[in-house]
Amino acid sequence: MKTFHCTACGHLIFFENVQCERCGMLLGFIPESGEMSAFVKESAGRWRAQLTGDGALYRPCHNYAVEKVCNWMIPVESDNRFCQSCRLTSVIPNLRARRRKGYWSRMEAAKRRLLYTLAVLGLRIETREQNPETGLQFEFRESLRDSKVTTGHDNGLITMNIAEADDLRRERVRIALGEPYRTLLGHFRHEIGHYYFDRLVAGTKHLRTFRALFGDERIDYRDALKTHYRNGAPADWGKAHVSAYATMHPWEDWAETWAHYLHMVDTVGTARACGISIDPENLSEPDAVDRAKSSSPSFDELIKQWCPLTYAMNSLNRSLGMPDPYPFTLAPVAVQKLEFVHRVIDAQRTAV
Question: Could you give the angle at the alpha carbon of 288 between the alpha carbons of 282 and 294, nearest 5°?
Fold first, then answer.
Protein backbone atom coordinates (compact mmCIF):
# COMPACT_ATOMS: atom_id res chain seq x y z
CA MET A 1 0.00 0.00 0.00
CA LYS A 2 1.24 3.47 -0.80
CA THR A 3 1.71 6.20 1.77
CA PHE A 4 -0.97 8.85 2.23
CA HIS A 5 -0.80 12.49 3.32
CA CYS A 6 -3.45 14.89 4.52
CA THR A 7 -4.21 16.99 1.45
CA ALA A 8 -4.81 20.03 3.66
CA CYS A 9 -1.58 20.13 5.68
CA GLY A 10 0.63 17.35 4.25
CA HIS A 11 0.78 15.32 7.49
CA LEU A 12 1.38 11.57 7.07
CA ILE A 13 -1.84 9.59 7.60
CA PHE A 14 -2.95 5.98 7.48
CA PHE A 15 -5.47 4.33 5.18
CA GLU A 16 -7.83 3.88 8.15
CA ASN A 17 -7.68 7.48 9.48
CA VAL A 18 -10.86 9.56 9.73
CA GLN A 19 -9.30 12.78 11.02
CA CYS A 20 -5.91 14.42 10.58
CA GLU A 21 -4.07 14.51 13.90
CA ARG A 22 -2.28 17.72 12.93
CA CYS A 23 -4.96 19.98 11.41
CA GLY A 24 -8.13 18.20 12.53
CA MET A 25 -9.64 17.98 9.03
CA LEU A 26 -12.09 15.22 8.18
CA LEU A 27 -10.38 12.51 6.14
CA GLY A 28 -11.91 10.00 3.76
CA PHE A 29 -10.94 7.56 1.05
CA ILE A 30 -12.16 8.10 -2.52
CA PRO A 31 -12.24 4.63 -4.17
CA GLU A 32 -12.68 6.07 -7.67
CA SER A 33 -9.24 7.68 -7.49
CA GLY A 34 -7.61 5.49 -4.85
CA GLU A 35 -6.72 8.54 -2.79
CA MET A 36 -7.18 9.72 0.77
CA SER A 37 -8.33 13.33 1.00
CA ALA A 38 -9.17 16.00 3.52
CA PHE A 39 -12.72 17.35 3.21
CA VAL A 40 -14.33 20.72 3.89
CA LYS A 41 -18.02 20.76 4.75
CA GLU A 42 -20.09 22.66 2.17
CA SER A 43 -23.55 21.98 3.58
CA ALA A 44 -25.50 19.20 5.26
CA GLY A 45 -24.19 15.92 3.83
CA ARG A 46 -21.97 17.63 1.24
CA TRP A 47 -18.20 17.72 1.59
CA ARG A 48 -15.65 19.14 -0.84
CA ALA A 49 -12.49 17.12 -1.44
CA GLN A 50 -9.23 19.00 -0.91
CA LEU A 51 -7.43 17.28 -3.77
CA THR A 52 -5.39 19.22 -6.30
CA GLY A 53 -7.51 19.75 -9.39
CA ASP A 54 -10.47 17.93 -7.87
CA GLY A 55 -12.67 19.89 -5.51
CA ALA A 56 -15.55 17.50 -6.22
CA LEU A 57 -18.39 17.05 -3.76
CA TYR A 58 -18.82 13.87 -1.75
CA ARG A 59 -20.76 12.56 1.18
CA PRO A 60 -19.72 10.01 3.77
CA CYS A 61 -20.85 6.40 3.50
CA HIS A 62 -23.86 5.76 5.76
CA ASN A 63 -21.66 3.51 7.92
CA TYR A 64 -19.17 6.39 8.13
CA ALA A 65 -21.71 9.06 9.02
CA VAL A 66 -23.88 6.99 11.38
CA GLU A 67 -21.95 3.99 12.69
CA LYS A 68 -18.36 5.36 12.57
CA VAL A 69 -17.03 2.09 11.16
CA CYS A 70 -16.07 3.23 7.65
CA ASN A 71 -14.04 6.07 6.12
CA TRP A 72 -14.98 5.78 2.44
CA MET A 73 -16.72 8.57 0.55
CA ILE A 74 -19.44 8.55 -2.11
CA PRO A 75 -19.88 11.06 -4.97
CA VAL A 76 -22.67 13.39 -3.92
CA GLU A 77 -24.69 12.64 -7.06
CA SER A 78 -24.76 8.88 -6.33
CA ASP A 79 -28.02 7.27 -5.24
CA ASN A 80 -26.19 4.80 -2.99
CA ARG A 81 -26.28 5.19 0.78
CA PHE A 82 -23.29 2.91 1.21
CA CYS A 83 -19.79 3.01 -0.26
CA GLN A 84 -18.39 0.46 -2.69
CA SER A 85 -17.02 -1.63 0.16
CA CYS A 86 -20.00 -1.57 2.50
CA ARG A 87 -22.40 -2.43 -0.35
CA LEU A 88 -20.69 -5.80 -0.59
CA THR A 89 -21.74 -6.70 2.96
CA SER A 90 -25.28 -8.08 3.21
CA VAL A 91 -25.27 -9.40 6.80
CA ILE A 92 -23.70 -7.74 9.84
CA PRO A 93 -23.64 -8.79 13.53
CA ASN A 94 -26.25 -7.78 16.07
CA LEU A 95 -24.87 -4.37 17.06
CA ARG A 96 -26.85 -4.33 20.31
CA ALA A 97 -24.81 -7.26 21.61
CA ARG A 98 -21.65 -6.57 23.60
CA ARG A 99 -18.47 -5.96 21.54
CA ARG A 100 -20.20 -6.79 18.26
CA LYS A 101 -19.82 -3.32 16.80
CA GLY A 102 -16.09 -3.47 17.45
CA TYR A 103 -15.84 -6.86 15.73
CA TRP A 104 -17.82 -5.58 12.76
CA SER A 105 -15.60 -2.50 12.51
CA ARG A 106 -12.46 -4.66 12.41
CA MET A 107 -13.95 -6.89 9.72
CA GLU A 108 -14.94 -3.97 7.52
CA ALA A 109 -11.48 -2.42 7.95
CA ALA A 110 -9.81 -5.67 6.84
CA LYS A 111 -12.20 -5.92 3.88
CA ARG A 112 -11.41 -2.37 2.76
CA ARG A 113 -7.69 -3.11 2.82
CA LEU A 114 -8.33 -6.26 0.78
CA LEU A 115 -10.33 -4.30 -1.79
CA TYR A 116 -7.57 -1.71 -2.09
CA THR A 117 -5.02 -4.40 -2.95
CA LEU A 118 -7.38 -6.02 -5.47
CA ALA A 119 -7.81 -2.64 -7.16
CA VAL A 120 -4.04 -2.12 -7.32
CA LEU A 121 -3.72 -5.52 -9.00
CA GLY A 122 -6.45 -4.60 -11.49
CA LEU A 123 -8.70 -7.45 -10.34
CA ARG A 124 -12.35 -7.06 -11.30
CA ILE A 125 -15.20 -7.76 -8.91
CA GLU A 126 -18.73 -8.64 -9.93
CA THR A 127 -21.30 -7.61 -7.33
CA ARG A 128 -24.53 -9.46 -6.60
CA GLU A 129 -26.34 -6.69 -8.44
CA GLN A 130 -24.30 -7.44 -11.54
CA ASN A 131 -24.41 -11.21 -11.15
CA PRO A 132 -27.10 -12.47 -8.72
CA GLU A 133 -25.78 -16.05 -8.77
CA THR A 134 -22.01 -15.71 -8.36
CA GLY A 135 -21.39 -12.02 -7.69
CA LEU A 136 -19.28 -11.19 -4.64
CA GLN A 137 -21.06 -10.78 -1.32
CA PHE A 138 -19.97 -10.89 2.34
CA GLU A 139 -21.92 -12.09 5.35
CA PHE A 140 -20.52 -11.49 8.83
CA ARG A 141 -22.27 -13.99 11.08
CA GLU A 142 -22.04 -15.27 14.64
CA SER A 143 -22.22 -18.86 15.84
CA LEU A 144 -25.18 -19.48 18.13
CA ARG A 145 -26.22 -22.50 20.18
CA ASP A 146 -28.33 -23.96 17.40
CA SER A 147 -26.28 -22.78 14.42
CA LYS A 148 -22.54 -22.95 13.89
CA VAL A 149 -20.99 -20.49 11.44
CA THR A 150 -18.03 -21.67 9.38
CA THR A 151 -15.88 -19.17 7.54
CA GLY A 152 -15.87 -20.09 3.87
CA HIS A 153 -16.70 -19.33 0.24
CA ASP A 154 -19.60 -20.54 -1.90
CA ASN A 155 -20.13 -19.22 -5.46
CA GLY A 156 -19.11 -15.67 -4.59
CA LEU A 157 -20.67 -15.63 -1.11
CA ILE A 158 -17.99 -15.23 1.55
CA THR A 159 -19.19 -15.99 5.07
CA MET A 160 -16.99 -14.81 7.92
CA ASN A 161 -17.41 -15.88 11.53
CA ILE A 162 -17.18 -12.68 13.57
CA ALA A 163 -15.26 -14.60 16.24
CA GLU A 164 -12.22 -14.15 14.00
CA ALA A 165 -12.32 -10.45 14.93
CA ASP A 166 -11.84 -11.41 18.60
CA ASP A 167 -8.05 -11.24 19.03
CA LEU A 168 -7.98 -13.46 22.13
CA ARG A 169 -10.18 -16.16 20.63
CA ARG A 170 -8.31 -16.11 17.30
CA GLU A 171 -4.96 -16.52 19.06
CA ARG A 172 -6.30 -19.46 21.08
CA VAL A 173 -7.44 -21.15 17.87
CA ARG A 174 -4.09 -20.47 16.21
CA ILE A 175 -2.23 -22.12 19.08
CA ALA A 176 -4.67 -25.05 19.27
CA LEU A 177 -4.25 -25.75 15.55
CA GLY A 178 -0.50 -25.24 15.61
CA GLU A 179 -0.67 -22.44 13.04
CA PRO A 180 2.28 -20.03 12.78
CA TYR A 181 0.07 -17.25 11.42
CA ARG A 182 -3.63 -16.39 11.73
CA THR A 183 -5.00 -12.90 11.08
CA LEU A 184 -8.31 -11.38 10.10
CA LEU A 185 -6.85 -9.92 6.91
CA GLY A 186 -5.34 -13.30 6.12
CA HIS A 187 -8.82 -14.87 6.24
CA PHE A 188 -10.16 -12.30 3.78
CA ARG A 189 -7.25 -12.87 1.41
CA HIS A 190 -7.69 -16.64 1.60
CA GLU A 191 -11.44 -16.64 0.94
CA ILE A 192 -11.19 -14.17 -1.93
CA GLY A 193 -8.70 -16.61 -3.44
CA HIS A 194 -11.50 -19.15 -3.82
CA TYR A 195 -13.61 -16.50 -5.54
CA TYR A 196 -10.86 -15.74 -8.05
CA PHE A 197 -10.17 -19.40 -8.72
CA ASP A 198 -13.70 -19.54 -10.14
CA ARG A 199 -13.17 -16.28 -12.05
CA LEU A 200 -9.63 -16.73 -13.40
CA VAL A 201 -8.71 -20.43 -13.43
CA ALA A 202 -11.73 -22.74 -13.61
CA GLY A 203 -12.63 -23.41 -17.22
CA THR A 204 -9.69 -21.41 -18.61
CA LYS A 205 -6.39 -22.15 -20.34
CA HIS A 206 -4.71 -21.94 -16.91
CA LEU A 207 -6.43 -25.07 -15.58
CA ARG A 208 -3.94 -27.58 -16.99
CA THR A 209 -1.00 -25.77 -15.44
CA PHE A 210 -2.93 -25.42 -12.20
CA ARG A 211 -3.45 -29.18 -11.98
CA ALA A 212 0.20 -29.85 -12.71
CA LEU A 213 1.25 -27.59 -9.82
CA PHE A 214 -1.54 -27.90 -7.27
CA GLY A 215 -3.22 -31.21 -8.10
CA ASP A 216 -6.62 -32.21 -9.47
CA GLU A 217 -9.32 -30.06 -7.89
CA ARG A 218 -11.97 -32.62 -8.88
CA ILE A 219 -11.07 -34.93 -5.98
CA ASP A 220 -13.82 -35.06 -3.35
CA TYR A 221 -13.51 -32.03 -1.08
CA ARG A 222 -15.43 -33.46 1.91
CA ASP A 223 -13.32 -36.61 1.95
CA ALA A 224 -10.15 -34.55 1.73
CA LEU A 225 -11.32 -32.35 4.60
CA LYS A 226 -12.07 -35.36 6.84
CA THR A 227 -8.72 -36.93 6.02
CA HIS A 228 -6.87 -33.70 6.80
CA TYR A 229 -8.46 -33.23 10.22
CA ARG A 230 -8.10 -36.92 11.03
CA ASN A 231 -4.46 -37.36 10.00
CA GLY A 232 -3.10 -33.83 9.80
CA ALA A 233 -0.69 -32.55 7.16
CA PRO A 234 2.18 -34.70 5.88
CA ALA A 235 5.41 -34.22 7.78
CA ASP A 236 7.14 -32.90 4.68
CA TRP A 237 4.43 -30.39 3.73
CA GLY A 238 6.94 -27.53 3.62
CA LYS A 239 8.62 -29.00 0.53
CA ALA A 240 5.77 -27.92 -1.74
CA HIS A 241 3.26 -25.80 0.19
CA VAL A 242 3.12 -22.39 1.88
CA SER A 243 1.21 -23.82 4.86
CA ALA A 244 0.11 -27.12 6.37
CA TYR A 245 -3.52 -26.36 5.59
CA ALA A 246 -2.61 -26.00 1.90
CA THR A 247 -2.08 -29.78 1.78
CA MET A 248 -5.77 -30.43 2.44
CA HIS A 249 -7.07 -30.01 -1.14
CA PRO A 250 -5.87 -28.30 -4.35
CA TRP A 251 -8.49 -25.58 -3.82
CA GLU A 252 -7.06 -24.82 -0.38
CA ASP A 253 -3.51 -24.94 -1.73
CA TRP A 254 -4.52 -22.32 -4.30
CA ALA A 255 -6.30 -20.13 -1.72
CA GLU A 256 -3.38 -20.29 0.71
CA THR A 257 -0.92 -19.48 -2.07
CA TRP A 258 -3.15 -16.67 -3.35
CA ALA A 259 -3.35 -15.15 0.15
CA HIS A 260 0.41 -15.43 0.49
CA TYR A 261 0.88 -13.64 -2.82
CA LEU A 262 -1.35 -10.78 -1.63
CA HIS A 263 0.72 -10.60 1.57
CA MET A 264 3.82 -10.21 -0.57
CA VAL A 265 2.40 -7.62 -2.95
CA ASP A 266 0.97 -5.42 -0.20
CA THR A 267 4.01 -5.63 2.10
CA VAL A 268 6.57 -5.01 -0.64
CA GLY A 269 4.40 -2.20 -2.01
CA THR A 270 4.25 -0.59 1.41
CA ALA A 271 8.02 -0.92 1.88
CA ARG A 272 8.63 0.66 -1.53
CA ALA A 273 6.22 3.51 -0.81
CA CYS A 274 7.98 4.20 2.49
CA GLY A 275 11.38 4.19 0.79
CA ILE A 276 12.54 1.10 2.69
CA SER A 277 15.46 -0.76 1.16
CA ILE A 278 17.80 -3.41 2.48
CA ASP A 279 21.40 -2.43 1.77
CA PRO A 280 23.55 -4.44 4.21
CA GLU A 281 27.09 -3.51 5.16
CA ASN A 282 28.19 -7.04 4.29
CA LEU A 283 28.05 -7.14 0.50
CA SER A 284 27.71 -10.94 0.52
CA GLU A 285 24.25 -10.65 2.09
CA PRO A 286 21.17 -10.23 -0.15
CA ASP A 287 19.95 -6.70 -0.65
CA ALA A 288 16.51 -5.33 -1.42
CA VAL A 289 17.29 -2.01 -3.03
CA ASP A 290 14.43 -1.02 -5.32
CA ARG A 291 16.38 0.10 -8.35
CA ALA A 292 13.67 -0.69 -10.90
CA LYS A 293 11.07 1.63 -9.36
CA SER A 294 8.41 -0.25 -11.30
CA SER A 295 4.75 0.29 -10.43
CA SER A 296 4.09 -3.30 -11.54
CA PRO A 297 7.19 -5.35 -10.72
CA SER A 298 7.85 -8.71 -12.32
CA PHE A 299 7.66 -11.79 -10.13
CA ASP A 300 11.46 -12.04 -10.10
CA GLU A 301 11.66 -8.46 -8.82
CA LEU A 302 8.97 -9.19 -6.24
CA ILE A 303 10.63 -12.29 -4.81
CA LYS A 304 14.05 -10.60 -4.85
CA GLN A 305 12.61 -7.84 -2.66
CA TRP A 306 10.60 -10.24 -0.50
CA CYS A 307 13.27 -12.53 0.92
CA PRO A 308 15.62 -9.86 2.36
CA LEU A 309 12.65 -7.77 3.50
CA THR A 310 11.11 -10.59 5.53
CA TYR A 311 14.50 -11.36 7.12
CA ALA A 312 14.73 -7.71 8.16
CA MET A 313 11.12 -7.68 9.41
CA ASN A 314 11.72 -10.75 11.57
CA SER A 315 15.02 -9.36 12.87
CA LEU A 316 13.41 -6.04 13.81
CA ASN A 317 10.58 -7.80 15.66
CA ARG A 318 13.04 -9.97 17.55
CA SER A 319 14.86 -6.80 18.59
CA LEU A 320 11.59 -5.69 20.20
CA GLY A 321 10.95 -9.07 21.80
CA MET A 322 8.05 -9.73 19.43
CA PRO A 323 7.29 -12.89 17.44
CA ASP A 324 8.26 -13.11 13.79
CA PRO A 325 5.69 -11.35 11.56
CA TYR A 326 6.70 -13.73 8.75
CA PRO A 327 7.08 -17.26 10.19
CA PHE A 328 7.40 -18.99 6.81
CA THR A 329 10.03 -20.56 4.60
CA LEU A 330 9.31 -20.77 0.88
CA ALA A 331 10.45 -23.94 -0.86
CA PRO A 332 11.14 -23.80 -4.63
CA VAL A 333 7.86 -25.58 -5.49
CA ALA A 334 5.90 -23.10 -3.37
CA VAL A 335 7.65 -20.26 -5.19
CA GLN A 336 6.57 -21.81 -8.51
CA LYS A 337 2.98 -21.77 -7.29
CA LEU A 338 3.29 -18.14 -6.26
CA GLU A 339 4.66 -17.31 -9.69
CA PHE A 340 1.66 -19.05 -11.26
CA VAL A 341 -0.68 -16.82 -9.23
CA HIS A 342 1.30 -13.81 -10.45
CA ARG A 343 0.98 -14.95 -14.08
CA VAL A 344 -2.78 -15.55 -13.77
CA ILE A 345 -3.33 -12.08 -12.33
CA ASP A 346 -1.04 -10.47 -14.88
CA ALA A 347 -2.86 -12.26 -17.74
CA GLN A 348 -6.27 -10.92 -16.77
CA ARG A 349 -4.84 -7.42 -16.26
CA THR A 350 -3.31 -7.31 -19.73
CA ALA A 351 -6.51 -8.76 -21.23
CA VAL A 352 -8.59 -5.77 -20.05
Answer: 150
- For the chain, counts of helices (H) and of strands (E): 9, 11
28 bridge partner residues: 37
- pLDDT number for residue 145: 82
Split at pLDDT 50, 70, 90, the class of 178 is confident
pLDDT score, position 39:
94
Residue 159, CA atoms < 13 Å, CB-side half-sphere: 12
Strand partners, 61: none
- Looking at residues 3-17, what average pLDDT do you find? 95
Give the pLDDT score at 146: 84
**For the chain, first and last CA: distance in Å?**
23
Provide the 8-state DSSP code for 144.
Answer: B
Strand partners, 39: 26, 49
**Helix, strand, or coil (residue 177):** helix
Reported pTM = 0.93
- For the chain, the average pLDDT equals 92
For residue 87, give the 3-state DSSP assignment. helix
CA distance 193 to 341: 10
